[in-house]
Design a protein that fits this description.
With 142 residues, this protein is mainly α. It is built from seven helices and no strands. Helix 3 packs antiparallel against helix 4.
C-alpha cells in the first residue's frame, strides 16, 4: 500500500482517529525518559562506588542517559510501527483477524469503536456473523 492508499483506507473505515489520536508516542517518550533516568542514576552510582572522581561519574551518567534514551526510543519505534500495521490490517481485512484470533479482534474492536463485539471461538459462527463463505470440505468417496 502506498501512504495515500493507507490514509484513504483508514478514512473509509473510520479508523483515522486511531492514527490521529496516537497515544503511543507520548507513552514511548515517557518510558524512554524513565529508562534513561534509571540508567543514568545506575551508571553514576556504580562509577562513584568504585571510587572514580565525581566529574567522571556525571559524565558516565550523561552517556548512559543518552545511550538508554536512544536505544529505548528505537526499540519502542518497532512497537509503534507494529501497532500502526495492525490497525491497517484491521481496516483492510478485519475478517482475517476475527477468524485467526477472535480474542484480539474483540479487543481491537472494543478499543476502536467503544463497544465489544463478542464473537465466540467457533469458526462457523465467526464466518456466519461476518457473512464469509466457509471453506467447503471435499467429501471422500467411500
Amino acid at each position: 500500500l502506498s501512504s495515500q492508499d493507507a490514509w484513504d483506507l483508514l478514512f473509509r473505515t473510520g479508523m483515522d482517529a486511531a492514527i490521529n489520536d496516537d497515544l503511543l508516542f507520548g507513552s514511548r517518550v515517557c518510558v524512554c525518559l524513565l529508562a534513561a533516568s534509571a540508567s543514568s542514576v545506575g551508571g553514576s552510582t556504580l562509577v562513584a562506588l568504585f571510587g572514580f572522581p565525581t566529574s567522571m561519574a556525571s559524565q558516565v551518567g550523561m552517556m548512559c542517559f543518552i545511550a538508554s534514551f536512544l536505544n529505548g526510543n528505537w526499540g519502542m519505534e518497532v512497537a509503534e510501527a507494529w501497532a500502526a500495521g495492525l490497525f491497517l490490517e484491521f481496516a483492510e481485512e478485519p475478517e482475517t483477524i476475527y477468524i485467526t484470533n477472535p480474542r484480539l479482534a474483540n479487543e481491537i474492536h472494543s478499543v476502536m469503536f467503544g463497544c465489544s463485539k463478542k464473537i465466540g471461538r467457533d469458526r462457523a459462527a465467526v464466518h456466519q456473523k461476518l457473512r464469509i463463505k466457509s471453506p467447503q470440505r471435499a467429501e471422500s468417496p467411500a
